[in-house]
Amino acid sequence: MDDSLTKDEYDALGQISKAPRHGRVSACVARNAKRLAGLKFVTRERDGSLVITDKGKQTLFVKSCIDGLRAVADDPLAKLAVEVATFLGKKGHIKPSEAGGGFDITQKGRECLADIDSTTR
User: Fold this and answer.
1) What share of the chain is helix, strand, coil (3-state, %, to 5)?
2) CA–CA distance, 53 with 66 (Å, rounded to integer)
3) What is this structure's pTM?
4) How does pLDDT run across 35-83, given as a tens digit for each residue?
5) 37: domain range?
6) 94: closest CA among 69, 112, 70, 114?
7) Long-range contacts from 66-71, C-beta under 8 angstroms, 24+ separation
8) The domain spanning residue 99 has which CATH number?
9) Do 40 and 88 belong to one domain?
């Protein structure tokens, strides 16, 4: 089974992670809930509410890291979430800018983006 998600499914997953537990779901979430539950990104509680799983949280974090890496590649002054910047820095994909106030993408980061682009497109 293919675990790759569409943009709409990523949006739904993000909404589920931020939504109040017993709140009304959006049309996007309702459209994608069955597939996300089937892929084990979310689970349904006994009361019918959707809860994101560890697999779903990890998937959103990886997407945030990839988006952050792309953002730094496009604009060295791009703002990154602290946990994303920390992770990318520890993995050697970005480094603090020598000019200050941002990040530079490393050769390893460029290679990683090239690899991601070659496998997803």
Assistant:
1) 55, 10, 35
2) 20
3) 0.86
4) 999 999 999 988 888 999 999 999 999 999 999 999 999 998 999 999 9
5) 7-52
6) 69
7) 66/116, 69/93, 69/94, 69/105, 69/109, 69/112, 69/113, 70/113
8) 1.10.10
9) no
